[in-house]
């Protein structure tokens, strides 16, 4: 009898993390991987294109659990996933990352005594004003198996008193995804189609509330992007939420006049082609910090803290404030590209996670 494993995803980064694990489990004679899409982000832009790029089937279950606020979103997923577990109980639930779907599915499963594995466990920014930080803390407190990407994550869990037998460092599954698709990414030609010369432009991604929700802060960032675009080509795939905030604040037309490439959200392959070929990235995203560190692309993170400090200590990431944008971005583009090595970020994290899960299942059966 195969173990039914729910792989729960609600946002684009979740799919990038569960995809290599899905493929690893699909080749195992002991596992039945089942993709559960919570619907936290459900649109062709934010989900469907990623399924295609990542070689994933259409989700086996779509919960369509959407909500406007954090509480409503969490409640919708919690209720819908509980219903699914009662109707088609899994042997294990795997949740990824730190979005509201991650917390909600974890709580629903554990209250039904279904064991949970947390993929990308142990990350901490130390900033509890971030909703993601609250989700990380709560999920790691109740999940049964914590798969960590790096040594600092292990240390965070040890400091919080998590028993070591619940922790297994497997590495970074985002890197597995890149390695699996590298040939397609390098051949995609996205930057070339946009008229961007290799190493001579910067990529911008912004979506964190601290940067885009308050009109004054967003206006200050736009002012700096305007000045930056006067001398440096910029490619800016605009998150739907950020696009809405820009229009609400009357800032969209200002960006359009700069001539920067304002793009709809891109699929994984096209986006990573842009990143791989650029001179630097200005971002507030978590996953981009990891991908740029692996590629050796300078990354400037527009945040005061990061839950991925290994990207700063061992990778090419640097935390900056908005006042540093105009100096930091051109300097990063001009800097020499250095590809760094972070332990276990090697494209083989998914097989390690699958092996860890099998050992746990077999141990529980004894």
Describe the model.
With 366 residues, the protein is an alpha/beta fold. Helices cover 49% and strands 14% of the residues. The chain has two domains: 3-171 and 345-365, Glycogen Phosphorylase B (Rossmann fold, 3-Layer(aba) Sandwich); 181-334, Rossmann fold (3-Layer(aba) Sandwich), CATH 3.40.50.2000. The chain has 17 helices and 13 strands. The chain has a seven-stranded parallel β-sheet with strand order 3-2-1-4-5-6-7, with helices on both faces. The mean pLDDT is 94.
Overview in brief:
The chain has 366 residues and is α/β, with parallel strands linked by helices. The chain contains 17 helices and 13 strands.
List the keywords:
single chain; 366 residues; alpha/beta; Rossmann fold; 7-stranded parallel β-sheet; 17 helices; 13 strands
Strand content: 5-15%
Determine the fraction of residues in helical runs and give it as a percent range.
40-55%
Q: What's the order of the H and E elements?
A: EHEHEHEHEHEHEHHEHHEHHEHEHEHEHH
What's the CATH H-level homologous superfamily of the largest domain? Glycogen Phosphorylase B
Mean pLDDT score, rounded? Answer: 94
What separation lies between the terminal Cα atoms?
A: 16 Å
**Annotation, overall tally of beta strands:** 13
């Amino acid at each position: 009898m195969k173990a039914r494993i729910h792989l729960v995803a609600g946002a684009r980064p979740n799919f990038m993390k569960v995809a290599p694990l899905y493929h690893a489990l699909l080749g195992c004679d002991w596992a039945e991987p089942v993709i559960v899409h919570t619907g936290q982000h459900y649109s062709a832009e934010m989900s469907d294109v990623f399924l295609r790029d990542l070689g994933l089937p259409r989700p086996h279950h779509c919960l369509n659990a959407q909500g406007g606020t954090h509480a409503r979103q969490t409640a919708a997923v919690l209720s819908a996933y509980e219903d699914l577990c009662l109707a088609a109980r899994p042997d294990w639930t795997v949740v990824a990352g730190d979005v509201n779907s991650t917390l909600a599915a974890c709580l629903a499963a554990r209250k039904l005594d279904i064991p949970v594995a947390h993929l990308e466990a142990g990350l901490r920014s130390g900033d509890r004003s971030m909703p993601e930080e609250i989700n990380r803390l709560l999920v790691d407190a109740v999940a049964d198996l914590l798969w960590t990407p790096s040594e600092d994550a292990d240390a965070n869990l040890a400091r919080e008193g998590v028993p070591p037998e619940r922790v297994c460092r497997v590495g970074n599954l985002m890197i597995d995804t890149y390695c699996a698709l590298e040939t397609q990414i390098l051949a995609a030609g996205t930057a070339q189609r946009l008229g961007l010369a290799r190493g001579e432009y910067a990529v911008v991604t912004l979506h964190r509330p601290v940067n885009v929700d308050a009109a004054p802060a967003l206006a200050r960032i736009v002012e700096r992007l305007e000045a930056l675009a006067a001398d440096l080509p910029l490619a800016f795939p605009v998150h739907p939420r950020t696009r809405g905030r820009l229009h609400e604040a009357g800032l969209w037309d200002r960006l359009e006049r700069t001539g920067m490439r304002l793009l709809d959200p891109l699929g994984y392959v096209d986006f990573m082609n842009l990143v791989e070929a650029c001179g630097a990235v200005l971002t507030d995203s978590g996953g981009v910090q990891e991908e740029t560190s692996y590629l050796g692309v300078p990354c400037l993170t527009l945040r005061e803290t990061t839950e991925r400090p290994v990207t700063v200590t061992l990778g090419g990431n640097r935390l900056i404030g908005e006042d540093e944008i105009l100096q930091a971005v051109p300097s990063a583009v001009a800097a020499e590209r250095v590809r760094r090595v972070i332990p276990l970020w090697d494209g083989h994290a998914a097989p390690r996670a699958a092996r860890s899960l099998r050992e746990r299942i077999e141990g529980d059966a004894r």
